[in-house]
Amino acid sequence: MTPVSDTLTPALTLAAGGLPVLPLRADKRPFGNCPDCRDNACGGRPNMKTPGPCQCPRPCHGWAAATTDPAVLSSASWAAAWRRAGAVAYHPGAAAVTVVDLDDADAITWARETLPPTRTVATTRGEHWLYRGTMQSANGVRAGVDIKSSMSYARWLGPGTGVMAALPPVVRALVEKKPSTVRPGASTVTVPAPGGGRQCRHRSPAYLERGIAMAEQRITDATSAIHNTVYRTFLAVLSTHGRCGCLADAHIERLFAAAQAKGESPRHCTDAWANATTALGM
What we know:
three-stranded antiparallel β-sheet, single chain, 9 helices
């Protein structure tokens, strides 16, 4: 177990400089929601997508837990998380920063040939390029490239080198031109609603929202067998909601985003979804 000072001390230093921070587990993922907030029972910050009224004193809701408040960071409610933490993360969007996460040498070469110079931070496999400004976050905008800004988190790996440039249009265009998730065609997930002129019971917003929220949470909470968990979760969602025309692209994107946040590639997400539809005869 990590000494609290190894993670809390640098977190407090960063927070004092205005950077909203949060603890990461040893696997470099945010801590899961507490029992009171599990499956969005608290009614706030649903599915880590938008800030809400939840005032949980623990580091819940992933990126939304990031804070600069030293009283919160040092509180007894956060102490257990800091003891178990393997790293410190920050919310780039809240700091008016966008991180272009380059996962390999090819991605770095592309960035050097395409993007304006800016501050860079070395990572385990590649580099983070930091720009001033915020935008929509997205994974897999091209091979080996993720965008981390609003509603996302990035691991703190040091201040980096170079002068931070303004967020260029070429980075914004990566998300505008390509969806944040790769998903199968509509024909694989949209099927006719029940006949007879009856309204499908799944069209209740609360019923469908709860189902998608629970599926996201199941993926987020997985600590092993991620591939299998993603597949079985997709299978469960399709078996309940896939035959009545309820699922929209936005629902599928949420599930794919949750899977990619656990390290699944867009291709693996697409394959898992296709395999689930095939297994159910859709």
